[in-house]
Each structure stands twice: as structure tokens, then as C-alpha cells.
Amino acid sequence: MAVFLTKESRVLVQGMTGGEGMKHTRRMLAAGTNVVGGVNPRKAGRTVDFGDRAVPVFGSVADGMRSTGADVTVVFVPPAFAKAAVVEAAGAGIGLVVVITEGIPVHDSVAFTAYAKKKGTRIVGPNCPGLITPGQSNAGIIPADITKPGRIGLVSKSGTLTYQLMYELRDIGFSTCVGIGGDPVVGTTHIDCLAAFQDDPDTELIVLIGEIGGDAEERAAAYIREHVTKPVVGYIAGFTAPEGRTMGHAGAIVSGSSGTAQAKKEALEAVGVKVGTTPTDTARLVLALLDVDRDTTGADHDTADADRDTARG
Q: Where are the active-site residues found (predicted)?
């Protein structure tokens, strides 16, 4: 089983012919993703050679969907054009839009997430690494070779910490890892992923990575109390962040006691979530709940407190 993305997913790449789009399309293909086309109105009708596969370029998402049956698109376009790209995809009726682009104005994100919701399209992001179902499909920029299929579901605001926890727990493996992004407005939330992992029979344990700012983790805690029966392990980046200062992600700002790492930790622990003090400590908590001896996994890659990663996303 998988969450949101499977080996059956047929993926378009908006902005495939640009530098970042080309690089990450190549990586997605290498991971086994079924990339069926790119989208660029100025290069429609061409194909791009990725070695063992030639990928066609379509003039619109709708054209790509009609020709290939695509149900996912990954957006690698500059911030100024991201809103139009997402609105186009949602308007075409595609099921999932993964918005990698960072630096999108908040008012644009508000507009396209609302439009996508109206159209029944799921947005992952913006400003996110995407999502991966190891061994099946990879939509975005998450490294595919640092973990394997397994029984942990991961949802994270931070791309850096997504990768670190995937690597720390690579001997157990993951059902799906979802990087939801750290902007103030995102399409898919912690709660959306908690609900999906709760319903996924192959996910035995959920890892939730949050960070300072906003109240997403507190709302997730309330949801866990009422709806989640599977064990959840958490980590909050930003314990050492200075009060009142933005830290990397646009959503990572603390005002008074609201949005602090300590407040989020306490909210999660109050509903039974075990919260690690570092990423490595978080991995140890996961292994303990799964009754796995860390010494037998070879997965102990201790690091210093990774709160600094909040500033890098």
C-alpha cells in the first residue's frame, strides 16, 4: 500500500525542459517513477531524451492528460508563474499537484490552494521536497536511494529533516514519505497525512516532523487524540530559535509563547506522542516502539541538534 503516490501513478512535469526540471526528471525516472510527459507551451511536440526513455512535451496539462492518462503533475516553474501552473493543472482535473517551487507569494498560494480544493485536486507544497513511496514512485526532489520500502509513514515540514529521518531509519523503511512544505499556506497538512497513514494497513507507525511557527502541530495533536490509534513519534525543529525571528521557512516565526517548539512538544506529548530531542533521538524512539534493536540495524548515525536545519528547510 502507499499514500497519495503509487507505482501506477502517471506523472507529468511542468517545467521539465528547464534546468531543475531536467535534472530532477532524470532522478525521478531513475527511481522508477512513470514520468509520461513534460509541459511547456513553447516546446510542445518535442521529446526529451533521458537515455533509455524519450519523454514527450505537451503544450498544456490537459493535453498531457488526454494523451497519457496522467494523474499527477510536479511543478518546477519560477515563482512568478507557479500560480498559473497550478491553476492550469487543477482546472484540467488532475488528481495531485506537487509544487516544488519556493518563494511563491502567499497570496498566490492562498488563491491556488483554494481553487484546487474547489476542483478536488490535492496540492502537496508549495516549497516542499515532494513525496516518495520507496520502490514505487518519487514525485519531487527527495533522494530515492537513502531508504527502502517499509512500515513507517513520514510527514514533515522540513526537507532536510525528511532526508535525515529517512536515512536514520533506512533499515526499517517507509510506506510513504510526504514533505508538505513549511510555508504559511500549504495544500496538504499534517492532519491530511495522519488520516491517510491511519487508513493505510501497511503503515504501522507514523513519524511527524514539525517546526516552530503557526499552530499546525497543535492542531495535529488534537486530531491524533480523536482519530489516530497507531503510534506516532514526533520531532519539532527550532528549540534554540530566537523568539520573534523568522527562521528559513516563511511559516517559522514565533510570537510570545505561541508557536514555540516547547509548546508544540507539550501539545503532542499530552496526546501520547513521543517527541525526540534530536533527529537521532527521534529515530531511537521509533525503533523502541517497533521493538527493534538499534545495534542490529547499523542505523545509528548520531548528529548534533538539528534545530539549525530549520534555517535550511
A: 249 (tele-phosphohistidine intermediate)
Question: 100: annotated binding-site residue?
Answer: yes
- According to the annotation, is 266 in a ligand binding site? no
Q: Out of 24, 107, 227, 249, which one is annotated catalytic?
A: 249
- Is 152 assigned to a binding site? no
Instruction: Give the mean model confidence (pLDDT) for residues 53-69.
Output: 98
Q: Which amino acid is at 242?
A: P
Could you tell me the three cell numbers for 39? 509541459
What is the distance, to the nearest Å, from the Cα of residue 66 to the centroid of all Cα atoms in its chain? 27
pTM over 0.85: yes
* Identity of residue 30: A
Contacts of residue 269, Cβ cutoff 8 Å, sequence gap at least 6: 275
Three-state SS sequence of the chain: CCCCCCCCCEEEEECCCCHHHHHHHHHHHHCCCEEEEEECHHHCCCEEECCCCEEEEECCHHHHHHHHCCCEEEECCCHHHHHHHHHHHHHHCCCEEEECCCCCCHHHHHHHHHHHHHHCCEEECCCCCEEEECCCEEEECCCCCCCCEEEEEEEECCHHHHHHHHHHCCCCCEEEEEECCCCCCCCCCHHHHHHHHHHCCCCCEEEEEEECCCCHHHHHHHHHHHHCCCCEEEEEECCCCCCCCCECECCCCCECCECCHHHHHHHHHCCCCEEECCHHHHHHHHHHHCCCCHHHHCCCCCCCCHHHHHHCC
For residue range 100-147, list pLDDT tens digits in order: 999 999 999 999 999 999 999 999 999 999 999 999 999 999 999 999
Quick check: is 249 catalytic? Answer: yes
Go through the domains of the chain in sequence order and give each one's CATH number: 11-124 (3.40.50.720), 146-290 (3.40.50.261)
Q: Which of 86, 68, 90 is CA-nearest to residue 15? A: 86
244 is in an annotated binding site: no
d(C-alpha 226, C-alpha 223), whole Å: 5
